[in-house]
């Protein structure tokens, strides 16, 4: 599984690297081509979802952002993100957020949104 993370913050990068050791960190959405999962910090990369969706149309896109900016999360969802999570929920378990984004795990009729269920749900075991 190829995971590309568009994350600039070093602390965020270290948390993701600890949870998803094979994640590739990219500076621009152009690097998302061929990814299975794309993780996007919507604060740092507000327009990346649209580009990532075009370059990796089959990838599952997991966006995260500040809980006090639900408009950014909704915009990410509207632009094609499969999950748009508040950063607190994403960083509760980044590996589960990435795994839940995989088609074999997340066969739910509705993808997660900022107001959806917790990452992983009951079927994450």
Please tell me about this protein's structure.
It is a single chain. By secondary structure, this protein is an alpha/beta fold. It has one domain: 3-Layer(aba) Sandwich (Rossmann fold). 32% of the residues lie in helices and 17% in strands. It contains five helices and five strands, in the order βαββαβαβαα. Strands 2-1-3-4-5 form a five-stranded parallel sheet. The C terminus is likely disordered.
Write a concise synopsis of the structure shown.
The protein is α/β, with parallel strands linked by helices. It has helices at residues 10-19, 48-55, 70-78, 87-92, 94-100; strands at residues 3-6, 24-25, 37-41, 60-65, 83-86. It is globular, with a radius of gyration of 13 Å.
Topology:
Elements (H helix, E strand, L loop, with lengths): L2 E4 L3 H10 L4 E2 L11 E5 L6 H8 L4 E6 L4 H9 L4 E4 H6 L1 H7 L25
Parallel strand pairs: 1-2, 1-3, 3-4, 4-5
Q: Provide the CATH superfamily.
A: Response regulator
Mean of all residue-level pLDDT scores: 85
Rounded Rg? 13 Å
Whole-Å distance between the termini?
Answer: 19 Å
Briefly note the structural class of the backbone: alpha/beta
- Helix content range: 25-40%
What features would you highlight for this structure?
disordered C terminus, globular, 5 strands, 125 residues, Rossmann fold, alpha/beta, five-stranded parallel beta sheet
């Amino acid at each position: 599984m190829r995971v590309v993370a568009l994350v600039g913050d070093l602390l965020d990068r270290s948390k993701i690297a600890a949870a998803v050791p094979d994640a590739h960190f990219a500076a621009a959405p152009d690097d998302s081509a061929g990814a299975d999962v794309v993780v996007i910090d919507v604060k740092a990369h507000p327009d990346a979802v649209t580009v990532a969706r075009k370059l990796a149309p089959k990838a599952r896109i997991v966006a995260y952002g500040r809980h006090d900016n639900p408009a950014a999360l909704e915009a990410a969802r509207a632009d094609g993100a499969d999950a748009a999570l508040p950063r607190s929920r994403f960083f509760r378990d980044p590996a589960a957020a990435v795994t839940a984004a995989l088609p074999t795990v997340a066969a739910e009729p509705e993808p997660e949104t900022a107001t959806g269920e917790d990452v992983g749900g009951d079927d994450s075991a």
